[in-house]
Amino acid sequence: MRLRVWRAAIFLTLIACEFSTRRARAESATDYSVGIESYHELSLPNGLRAVIALDRRVPQVALDIEYAVGDALDPADQPGLAQLVGALLPKLGTRHVQSRERRRLFDAAGFKFEEPHVRVGVDTTALSLEVPAEALELALWVEADRMGFAAGGVTDSAVKQAEVSAAKLLSKAVTDPNSATPFWVGLGGAHPYGALVRPANFATVTAAVAASRLRFYNPATAVLVLVGDVDVQLAEQAIRRYFGPLPSAPIAQPTVARQATSPRSLVMEAAISARFAAQVWETPPYLAPDDLGLDVIAALLVRRLSAGGVCDKVDA
Predict the structure, then answer these.
(1) What is the pLDDT of residues 291-311, one digit of tens each?
(2) Which of 163, 259, 267, 289 has the greatest number of CB atoms lying within 10 Å of its CB?
(3) pTM of this structure
(4) Kind and range of the H or E element at 243?
(5) Beta-carbon neighbour count of residue 38 at 10 Å?
(6) Which residues contact 208 (CB under 8 A, 6 or more apart)?
(7) Is the Cβ–Cβ distance between 59 and 227 less than 8 Å?
(8) Closest Cα partner for 250 from 225, 285, 284, 215?
(9) Kind of pairing between the strands at 275-282 and 125-132
């Protein structure tokens, strides 16, 4: 059995189990705190939150930027727009540096260039990469430049290429037993997440539309996380220097169209070789004060189910 916990924290927390025909051997829960010496947090006036986790086991730094923008914010007439923007993000240049020049910058500094990986979820879009510790300041400058100025690099040809990638991901999610799509269907069309299950429509997405949408991906919607062999003082200075001057604007999250007045259950059938069970709860908005507590509860549930041998694999 596989347990999956999706953080759809604006509207719900969903815990889902996929049952196999055989009982699996218990897996030990991963302790993500191993090697972490300390945590440091800072917030900038423009709304950017940053977290630095110091871990000196290897001379590398994992950099992750998570925006509170995902599928749930797609306009009604442009489903799939968040996926399209996710496909665009790694490819766009800015007025300061073209996309192909990023590799040259890293090569000139003696580091291997890594194109960031982008994950688009219901509530979030995350951009992540790993760099040598010595290359962290250069990586921070590149990502701050991308955050602040990527909208200026959008072209019609780039949008067309991103449409192909986004359409493939969306079509795969409908039939993928590892995706959350079956559960969003169960919520129904009156719920913002249930309404997400619809064909992508990029007919009206021009370069201007995509560029306008990229302005949602700004410091006020972002959390920057650094994990690794970090000089904390220098990293904080670089974050303030490169991200601090960026323009910023909060965005309005969607509201729940209808709330269930009592618990309800439903039965779903799908042409996939798996059995599912799920429970859904209303939760506070994403990154609200109570949101961290939900993460702790989810982690405890995952670890207990895993330790008890209930799951083949646990994803959270």
Answers:
(1) 777 777 777 877 777 777 766
(2) 163
(3) 0.77
(4) helix 232-243
(5) 9
(6) none
(7) no
(8) 215
(9) unpaired
